[in-house]
Amino acid sequence: MGEQNNNSDKIKFKVKHLNEYHEIVIDRNDARYESKYQHQQLFEQLESITGVPSRYTARAYIDQSYIYWPDINPQRFRFSFDNQKAFAPGIRRRYSRQYDIRSLHFPDGERFHLQYGLSYAHNISKHLSMRYTLVKERDVPEEGCGLYFCQSRSTESYFKRLKDLVCNDELNAKITQIVQPLMVSGMWAAATTNFREFNIQQYLHSECYVYHLQYRQAGHTRQVHLYPRTRG
Description:
Blueprint: E1 10-17, E2 20-27, H1 40-50, E3 57-66, E4 75-82, E5 110-120, E6 128-136, H2 156-166, H3 169-184, H4 188-197, H5 201-204, H6 209-217
Parallel strand pairs: 1-5, 3-6
Antiparallel strand pairs: 1-2, 3-4, 5-6
């Protein structure tokens, strides 16, 4: 593995999309963006890698070891970034001061696997949107699913299905007309009912049984209602 990139002007790492690795380079001093929006470089490059238009990607997460205090071991921490290009007209753009992509620290060439997810981002895009999670390769099991990575949500067929959904403007217009007012009003159960009618709820909440089994074995007791992945 390469040297730590903390003092470099560029952050370099590799992302595995399906079966191919791609290099991502984040320039900490990219003059195109204000400092708080340098994470837009990530969304630009993910668009190039996946072929999904950036406007249909609402959020991305990057797994990162993060030290809270000098006298304790690094703890797992997940950076979260909202795509500024995904915000619909009339939605106030926002960013989190807590997550600054320029503060990422790992060796140059660190490898990540791309995990795909779907969301209806009522407070960002008013649209079905892709959600990416970059999981460190060492946390990805060679076979099956693990605590931080689900193999069934990283296949070509699953990715293609999500891509088709987010890029289907006709379907999204119908969904937005019905679901957006419900979610703005906090009527989550009614929104979920409509997502089921559109046969997309299984993609919005494609929970992995193996993940939750390991989660419970680790001593956590969160109650999760699984939605069948096989429906539709």
